[in-house]
Amino acid sequence: MKTHAQCGIILENKEGKILLQLRDNKKTIEYPHCWGTFGGAIEDGETPLQAVIREIKEELDYDLKKPEHFGTFPFEKYSIFMFRKVDAQITIEQLNVREGQKGAFFSLEEIRTLPCAFNCKEIAEIYFKTFSSRKHAKNHQ
């Protein structure tokens, strides 16, 4: 069981879908063969921002620029610092998934049907509730 603070990213594409990682199907890890966000442990001496930039470079070979912190979510004995980035140019083909089985972009409706790791569904629900309403409000001004 993890006890160290974690970080994660919600990377949103132009369709308004978010990137998730299909975790490895190994009995030695928590939530094998389930979907979750990309990210990982915050190392000693690192800020959550530094950690998410490092983790996303390691896991996706993606240079994360100016992610926005949108919430800290408690889970079991640690906190998950979640960041977001909207990249209208990003496609799955541009990413080099180096951790987990694969990555894919999903809508909230699709996420609700997936087997998810940790509190991924809760975070996705909050993300879409918070940021989809902003988009909707901007489109009707």
End-to-end separation = 47 Å
Number of strands: 7
Quaternary structure of the protein: single chain
String of helices and strands = EEEEHEEEHH
Strand content: 25-35%
Poorly predicted regions are: 136-141
How many separate structural domains?
1
The helix content is 25-40%
Q: What is the rounded Rg?
A: 14 Å
Concise account of the structure shown:
The protein has helices at about 50-60, 110, 120-140, and strands spanning about 5-10, 20, 35, 40, 70-75, 80-85, 100-105.
Task: Give a verbal description of the structure.
The protein has 141 residues and is α+β, with helices and mostly antiparallel strands. The protein has a single domain (6-139), classed as Nucleoside Triphosphate Pyrophosphohydrolase (Alpha-Beta Complex), CATH 3.90.79.10. Helix content is 26%, strand content 28%. It is built from 3 helices and 7 strands; from the N terminus they run ββββαβββαα. The protein has helices spanning 48-60, 108-111, 120-139, and strands at 6-12, 18-22, 35-36, 38-41, 68-75, 78-86, 102-106. It has a 4-stranded mixed β-sheet with strand order 4-1-6-5. A 3-stranded antiparallel β-sheet has the order 3-2-7. The radius of gyration is 14 Å and the shape is globular. Mean pLDDT is 92; it is low at 136-141.
